[in-house]
Design a protein that fits this description.
globular, mainly alpha, two-stranded antiparallel sheet, 508 residues
Length: 508
């Protein structure tokens, strides 16, 4: 047993929970202070579970290298049980706990007489969602719940074996001339159980194929969640890899500048005009929504989401304007974001290269070799780098969700603001991060399978989940779509700052 890893696990667990509690306390709206304790507890546990999923990846690698056990073993700590516990809780949180808490919170009415009026619709909606999911799961598991594992088997008799029939008149002898099997010189070749001296009669005795194994319900459940997560991860992950470092650098470029009283009043009047325009648009959308005129393909709903985006943007700009008289702390934060953004460019570029060179082309281990090289210099450096790449991908996926959702109005906006975030937004974001964390864990296990070989996560994801019938193809070829969205995001975000800058200049 490696006591150092146990101490690291305990400290990491405590720090993760403390950070989750701090985030909820920091962002929680004043309207939810000293109430809504059940959703808060659910959010804290959900955020902690998402972090545990990603942090278990490097911990699994470190456990594999436990010096007290035989080389190549899975380590001194039974991480199989730990992975089952974390993934099992995530399944429960994604399918049952978080949806119920969301419906329960949204069903609250100031005029209600008892909490049962919230519980009844929450249970109904949760049951409907779970019924659909588990029906799909049962059908797929019983029909295609197999992992198709490719293999190549090679067989050859030892040189001193006599494979001749007892009545054979041919002497046993090694090759007197060269025999080639698949272009490689061999000493013996086997054909129909006889050792032959004629190269033209020889053939390699090998067998390739696919071994189909029925996976457990738990493994298939994890694979199905990964597949569902991939449907959004290809969009949000690709966009986030580009948007995250660019936004960090833009926060430094557009850091607040202290304004004079005249400049402050001018900008405030301009915002007041925009607010009046938004009020008119809001009344028009409210009338259309009340009459049921949603337009083709839910056009009004999309406009409502865009309207919420515009309101959020106005609120952010107003808060920035109000704090423009004292910008010391904001400028400090902006300067801290600059080196983080530069580091982010390196991480995102390395991720994209690794996907192309290793995941798709399989020409070089790339980052796997880098992790191993760092470990050879100092054992923890490779693990730290692995953690950085995994956490960056999770952060990028969450960033991509807000970026894509806000710019195109395809999802309802749930902004995170200090002291102004409602529990409905917390629950939505916790559900998003939970679902994304499972996909990110599977993606990292697939991307760094050389470095993470002989670990529990390698056995779970790389051996079984990645080869699930049908689902495995989704995970493999969706990486191309992820790269396409990364390229489109790069072009879009290069053009958008120019438009924003022009708009700001016009306002001035």
């Amino acid at each position: 047993m490696d006591w150092f890893l146990i101490i690291i696990a305990i400290v990491g667990f405590i720090l993760t929970v403390v950070v989750a509690v701090y985030l909820v306390a920091l962002y929680c709206s004043e309207d939810d202070k000293n109430q809504a304790w059940l959703p808060k507890i659910i959010v804290v546990i959900g955020l902690a579970l998402s972090a545990f999923t990603v942090l278990l990846l490097p911990f699994d690698v470190a456990n594999r290298r436990d010096p007290t056990v035989m080389a190549g073993s899975t380590g001194g700590i039974d991480l199989a049980v730990m992975w089952q516990m974390v993934l099992g809780l995530i399944v429960a949180w994604v399918l049952l706990i978080t949806p119920f808490a969301t419906f329960y919170y949204e069903a609250w009415d100031p005029s209600q007489k008892s909490s049962f009026e919230q519980i009844k619709p929450a249970l109904g909606y949760t049951f409907g969602w779970c019924f659909i999911f588990f029906l799909l799961f049962i059908i797929l598991w019983f029909t295609v719940g197999y992992a198709d594992l490719p293999f190549t088997g090679w067989s050859a008799p030892p040189a001193n074996w006599d494979l001749r029939p007892s009545n054979s008149k041919f002497p046993l002898k090694p090759w007197e001339s060269n025999c080639f099997c698949n272009g490689k010189e061999a000493s013996y070749c086997v054909t129909s159980g006889f050792l032959k001296a004629q190269p033209e009669d020889a053939a390699c005795y090998s067998e390739g194929g696919t071994l189909s194994i029925r996976v457990s319900a738990f493994v298939y459940m994890v694979g199905l969640l990964c597949a569902i997560g991939w449907l959004s991860f290809v969009v949000f992950g690709g966009a986030g890899l580009i948007a995250l470092p660019m936004d960090l650098i833009n926060d430094w470029r557009w850091r607040p500048v202290k304004l004079s009283r005249t400049e402050y009043e001018t900008k405030k009047r301009a915002l007041r005009v925009e607010v009046q325009t938004l009020l008119s648009e809001g009344k028009e959308l409210e009338e259309k929504n009340a009459t049921g005129k949603t337009g083709f393909f839910g056009g009004t709903k999309k406009k409502i989401n865009k309207f919420k985006e515009a309101v959020t943007d106005i609120e952010t700009r107003f808060e920035t304007l109000e704090s423009s008289m004292d910008v010391g702390r904001q400028v400090l934060v902006a300067y801290l974001k600059l080196p983080l953004g530069i580091l982010g460019i390196v991480l995102s570029f390395a991720w994209i290269l690794h996907i192309i060179l290793y995941n798709l082309a399989d020409t070089t281990p790339f980052l796997n070799n880098m992790f191993r090289g760092l470990d050879s210099f100092f054992p923890l450096f490779g693990t730290i780098a692995y953690t950085a790449f995994a956490m960056w991908m999770l952060w990028a996926a969450v960033k991509g969700c807000f970026k894509v959702g806000c710019n195109f109005g395809i999802i309802q906006i749930h902004p995170m603001k200090i002291n102004a975030t409602l529990m409905s937004s917390f629950l939505f974001n916790a559900l998003l991060v939970l679902l994304t964390s499972v996909t990110v864990a599977q993606f990292c296990a697939m991307s760094f399978r050389d470095y993470a070989a002989n670990t529990v996560v390698d056995s779970l994801f790389s051996t079984y989940v990645n080869h699930l019938r049908g689902i495995g193809y989704v995970m493999q070829y969706f990486q191309i779509i992820l790269l396409i969205f990364a390229g489109l995001s790069f072009v879009y975000l290069l053009l958008k700052p120019c438009c924003c800058k022009k708009k700001n200049n016009d306002d001035d």
